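The authors assume throughout that readers already know how a fold can be written as C-alpha cells. For illustration, here is how one protein appears when written out as sequence plus C-alpha cells.
>
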Amino acid sequence: MGIRQTTGRGQRFDSILDTVGNTPVIRINRIAPNNVTVYVKFEAFNPAGSVKDRLALNIIEAAERDGRLKPGQTVVEATSGNTGIGLAMVCAAKGYPLVVTMAESFSVERRRLMRFLGAKVVLTPKAQKGFGMYTKAKELAEQNGWFLASQFETPDNADIHENTTAREIMGDFEGERLDYLITGYGTGGTVSGLGRVLRKERPDTKIILSEPANAALVGSGYINTRNDSNQPTESHPNFEPHPIQGWTPDFIPYVLQETLDKKFYDELIPVAGPDGIKWSRRLAAEEGIFTGISGGSTFAVAMALAERAPEGSVMLVMLPDTGERYLSTPLFEGVAEEMTEEEWDISRSTPSAQMAAE
C-alpha cells in the first residue's frame, strides 16, 4: 500500500458551525469478537468534541428562526458539560452571552473549557445532583429574562438527530446490513431522533438502550413528575451517583419520553461504570479511538450483546465524545504523570538526554 493521500473537502466553510455533523463511522478491527462486525459512530469529530454540538446548534438556530431568542440575549442552561461546551461554541460564534449551571461533581476540565469559550459557569452543590443545577438555570432565566435552552424538553433536540445523525447513518449503511444500534441516553435526544427514522426505514435494526446499572431509571418503571412545561419537579428516587458523565441525570427527561412511549428501543441493557472505563481504555490503547466513559460504556454493552448475537451480526455503537474531558475523572486513575519504572529503564538504555534520578 502506497502513501496515503488527501485531496481536501472540495469546499470552504463560512463558520465553525457549518462543520457540525457528518461524523465518521469507523470499523473496530482488533477488539471486536470474530462473530460480529462492529462499527462506532465517533461524535468526537464534531468541532467542540461531542454529539451535543448538534443539539446546541439546533436549539439556538431554531430559537432564532421563531423569535424565542432575541439578538444579544443571554442564553442559560443546566449541563453536565458537553451541552455547555457545545452551546459555548455556538454562542461564541453567534455573539450570545452564555451562563451555564453545573453540579460541582462534574470534571473540572469541562468548566474550564466552557470558560475558555467565553461562558460563565455557575456551580451548584453536588448533593443536589442534576435537579439542583436544573432548578438554578430555571431561576436565573426567570429572574433575568434569559433564554433557557431547555435541552431536556425542547423538540429541537430530537429533531436535529432525526435530520442529521439518523440521515448520516442511513447514508453510511445504505444497501448494507445493520442489525443493532447501541446508545445510552442523557437527554434522550439521540435515541428519540434515531428511533423516528430507524423504525420507519430500517425496522429490522434493533435499537439497544443502556443506562448505568446503579441508576436504572428507565428500568425502574417509575416516571418522575413533571410540570405543565414538561420540566421535572423531583429527583428520581432510583438515581444514584455514577461515573458515566453525560448519561442519565437524576430524572427522566421529557425528550426521552418519546422513546419510552413509542417503544423506540428493543432492549434495555444496564452497564456498570467500571466496565465503561475498562472498554474506553481498551478502545484507546488497542484501536486508537479516544472516547470518554460514556463511549466506553456504550461499547461495553455492545461487547456483552456480541456474546449472544447471531453469527455475522453488524453493530453500530454511538460514541458521544472525546476522552480529553475526563482527565480528572476515574478514567485516568493510574495513568502516571511521571515516568514509570519501565520508562526509566527505556531511558537508561541509551546514554543521551538522561533525566536526573528522583
Q: What stands out?
A: The longest strand covers residues 36-42. The two ends are 46 Å apart (CA to CA). The mean pLDDT is 96. The chain has two domains: 16-50+166-332, 52-148.
